[in-house]
Amino acid sequence: MTDRPMSNRIPSPDFSYAGRTLRAERLPLPDVAAEIGTPFYCYSLAGLTRSYRALEAALAGLAGLPATICYALKANSNQAVIAAFAQLGAGADVVSGGELRRALAAGIPADRIVFSGVGKTRDEIALALRSGIRQINVESEAELDLISAAATEAGVTARVSLRINPDVDARTHDKISTGRKQDKFGIAIGRTLPAYARAADLPNLTPAGLAMHIGSQLLDVAPYRAAFGRLAEQVRALRAAGHEVTSLDLGGGVGITYRDEAPPRFEDYAAVVRETVGGLGCELVFEPGRSLVGNAGILVARVLYVKDGGIRPIAVVDAAMNDLARPAMYDAYHAIVPVTQPQNSPDWVEMDVVGPICESGDTFAVARRLPPLVPGDLVAFGSAGAYGSVMSSAYNSRPPAPEVLVSGARLAVVRARQTVDDLIRQESVPDWLGSA
Fold it and tell me: Is residue 70 among the annotated active site residues?
């Protein structure tokens, strides 16, 4: 028998086998599939809670430094997921007016919301000011003028923090690195002092501090040490110039295990924070996303066909790149496991796992070692809680997969399955085009 590859496993205790059957907490996934249909996303409330409490405990060691955890909605903006974090005490990091409205609707207090993003519109800024959020993270000097004008018009004072680009390579995937000189995010670090001085001079603005986020899925604390060290230098320079700096937003980006990665422990991350900015006496804001939700979710699909690919078998499943875009966008790895393990321990074989969309990029895995699959088998894609459903689309007129939340033996559909009729109803044919 060929041993099961250790890397092809779901890296979460919340999705484990009881006998031969994969469960979400205490719920057998075949039962969920029978009730919901496939494909579907499944989230574990225990997983969400465990990751949040672990980060909270690590940051509690920053004695004397008030820390606010603002969950980054871009990782997963389902209302139930946001509400779960709200009940745990989280704030929110939002990057659009839509995410701001989602955060408020799910129960995040406005004074625990920070608004980041390089392209905020005047309407989004006005919404943030009306809502009374904690702060707006400013990503360009031109944005300062727009916020000042909107705040003056609204008769309020906007609390802002300048997001600084430290020119530090996060050593992560090129498409999710955000802290290098030519990346589109933040104000160049050499402009910190004049930009802060301008913020202090503009009407109806109160600069509170600095912000930084250098990328996602970081597997080493060294880039944090470099970036936070540069941020501390800027704080000292601003204070030497007579400016008040009371708050630091350190972003997020701690990685998770998809395959066999060994990401930093939250305690190691907190130690770097203490070492680099712990002596500045600033309030601290953190913006975790993937590290809180990534391994708390899976995507379940059903095998439609197994065909001869000439070189190796090809398993066609009913999930596709419109449901889970990361493999097509980033060549990302997701564990793929059978929901029901074979009874006779057959030899594992190399096969490709693909979706039904008319794109060669609609491929989840190439030459992945799996037990032989047959039509009707259920498979689960691991580490799908972050940047999964939230990035889905209706490409090929495929309605996005529904989402469910599990707690123990309880199941709730937290986003219902759409139909093609739902998609069509969003569109219209103009009268002047004539009837078919």
Answer: no
Q: In this structure, how many other beta carbons lie within 10 angstroms of the beta carbon of residue 296?
A: 30
Identify which of 224, 245, 120 has the alpha carbon closest to the alpha carbon of residue 179.
224
DSSP assignment string, 51-99: HHHHHHHHHHTSTT--EEEEEEGGG---HHHHHHHHHHT-EEEESSHHH
As a whole number, mean pLDDT of residues 181-194 equals 81
The Cα 365–Cα 420 span in angstroms is 28
Q: What is the pLDDT of residues 246-270, one digit of tens each?
A: 999 999 999 999 999 999 999 999 9
Q: In this structure, are residues 160 and 208 in contact, taking their beta carbons and an 8 Å threshold?
A: yes
For the chain, the structural domain boundaries read 15-44+294-423, 116-288
Please state the pTM of the whole predicted model. Answer: 0.94
**What percent of the chain is predicted at pLDDT more than 70?**
94
Given CATH 2.40.37.10, say whether it is the number of domain 15-44+294-423. yes
5 CB burial (10 A radius; 0-12, 13-18, 19+) = middle
* End-to-end Cα, the chain, rounded Å: 60
Beta strands in 202-348 (DSSP E): 205-211, 247-249, 283-286, 297-308, 313-317, 336-338
Which pair of tokens denotes residue 330? 């980033």
pLDDT at 180 over 80: no
Per CATH, the number for 116-288 is: 3.20.20.10
Question: Hey, do 15-44+294-423 and 116-288 end up sharing a CATH topology, with the first three levels equal?
Answer: no
- Candidates 42, 70, 282, 358; catalytic one: 358
313 exposed, middle or buried (CB, 10 Å; 0-12, 13-18, 19+)?
Answer: middle
The two tokens of residue 18 are 């009881």
Enumerate residues 6+ apart whose C-beta is below 8 A from 237. 192, 193
Phi, psi angle pair for 143, to nearest 5°: -65, -30
Return the pLDDT at 1.
Answer: 33
